[in-house]
């Protein structure tokens, strides 16, 4: 009977060893790095890809999770979710997919360095292609102010009326503004920074309140948001949205009101800009982001390009609802 049990146990052990070998082969062939920790954050297993990613850290059974992260120069949380981190020591952009259970935690790690670099190159290519289109439009956009400048100068030569000198100065300022705004569009921030969205919007609105005391500005902060982005580009985009609203309400004789509301949804944040200005028809809405399109007498039509650049840069969404002679509601949706 003992001999029979010994034979059965031997076969069972061979079967388990076969399963174990297959499991190890599958575990090591997975394209993502896998780290398995117990409830105390002690490393239980790691596959071949994980060892390649953490090449400066010899991954061994029994290592503390905190020790692995410290040696790799990584700051991250072990709460369930998807995170992107950059390690200076590893010189890599990494994506962490954390799955937390009651007695263990699985961390899937992907090296996304090449993906991030490719994405940045594609964004740069798209940016400069867009800038080429803007420069082509700039040459066309300058024709009107230059023609007005020439006509005003000719009138001054005929009449010698000094009023035309004032108009000449205004036209020159207008041309300089177009040139400066076009140059500003080529400004590219080298790195992102973290800042509070609410504080920055409050600062922008405060400046507008000082300059336009007859307009009622309202801010409703339903959420307080920190974002990582190009602060200069974000500020330029928001400034031009508010400036468009100001221009729109000043064209009406009714009581002027501009409202900014910041909301938090389950998966995103929403910034809403509303005004009771002149609004836009369908044709104007379609051309809203087109460079040099403007319905204002002295407008350049370049302000909305900053908004478009921010939307692309931040991978955000833009929604516009507008009724002619009623007002406009513009929404920016930022993914969490």
Rounded Rg: 30 Å
Major beta sheet summary: 5 strands, antiparallel
Gross morphology is elongated
CATH topology of the largest domain: Heat Shock Protein 90
* Count of discrete alpha- or pi-helical segments spanning 4 or more residues: 10
Number of strands: 12
Q: Which regions are unreliable across 5 or more consecutive residues at pLDDT < 50? A: none
Q: For the largest beta sheet, what order do the strands appear in spatially? A: 2-1-5-4-3
Round the mean pLDDT to the nearest integer and report it: 80
Query: Can you tell me the CATH class of the largest domain?
Result: Alpha Beta
Beta percentage is: 15-25%
> How many domains, as an integer?
3
Order of helices and strands: HEEHHEEEHHHEHEEHEEHHEE
CATH architecture of the largest domain: 2-Layer Sandwich
For the record, give the distance between the C-alpha atoms at the N and C termini, rounded to a whole number: 66 Å
Label the structural class.
alpha+beta
Please give the share of residues in helix: 40-55%
Q: CATH homologous superfamily name of the largest domain?
A: Histidine kinase-like ATPase, C-terminal domain
Explain the overall architecture:
There is one protein chain. The chain is α+β, with helices and mostly antiparallel strands and 336 residues long. The protein is 48% helix and 24% strand. The chain has helices at 2-29, 48-53, 65-72, 113-141, 143-159, 163-184, 197-211, 231-250, 282-286, 303-313, and strands at 33-38, 43-46, 81-87, 92-100, 104-111, 193-196, 216-221, 226-229, 257-264, 268-275, 317-323, 327-335. The strands form 3 sheets. It has a 5-stranded antiparallel sheet. The protein has a 5-stranded mixed sheet with strand order 7-9-10-12-11, covered by helices on one side. The chain has a two-stranded antiparallel ribbon with strand order 6-8. Helix 5 (143-159) runs antiparallel to helix 6 (163-184), helix 7 (197-211) runs parallel beside helix 8 and helix 8 packs across helix 10 (303-313). The longest helix has 29 residues, at 113-141. The radius of gyration is 30 Å and the shape is elongated. The model has no long low-confidence stretch (mean pLDDT 80).
